Amino acid sequence: MGLFTKDIKTMDDLLLHGVQDIYYAEQQIMKALPKMIDLATNRDLATGLRSHLEETQKQVERLQKVFAKLGKEPSGTQCPAIDGIIKEANETAGEIEDKAVLDAAIVANSQAVEHYEMCRYGTLIAWAEELGHQDIVRFLTTNLNEEKAANTKLNTIALRKDVNKKASTAA
């Protein structure tokens, strides 16, 4: 099932496709986070990423419950958007030598991921509400709230934990 193909005939089909998309995205994020954790030199950043990896695992479990409520087996559909964001993050990380600058890039790339997820979850919540799927709205809302909190933590790390400041003074 591809986005905007004839496989999507109804709003329910669109909702399912969106859930499959974010399910795939969360799985790809779980694969990408350990590398970002290993590259991070700022302790607060590494700790925050480790914490979000644990949250992401719980988010996948909630999405599995969403599939169950929809009467579907959990499955992902390839998401070129998240693949592109992760690819760009990996390429950027490979181009940066200075560890302080790399930490700032990790924060920025992580926020790109968070913003994508916030967008997806917000849309899925709106669609689920419109379709009367209140039984899955709470799972999606919990995931959305965790993504928002992760983004806020990344802002704090960048601005108050001096990641950006240290990067700006790198030689």
TrEMBL record:
Pfam families: DUF892 (PF05974). The keyword Cell inner membrane does not apply. It comes from the Bacteria. Gene3D superfamilies: 1.20.1260.10. InterPro entries: DUF892_YciF-like (IPR010287), Ferritin-like (IPR012347), Ferritin-like_SF (IPR009078), YciF (IPR047114). Keywords: Coiled coil, Plasmid. The keyword Chaperone does not apply. Residues 46-73 form a coiled coil. This is Ferritin-like domain-containing protein. It comes from Bradyrhizobium barranii.
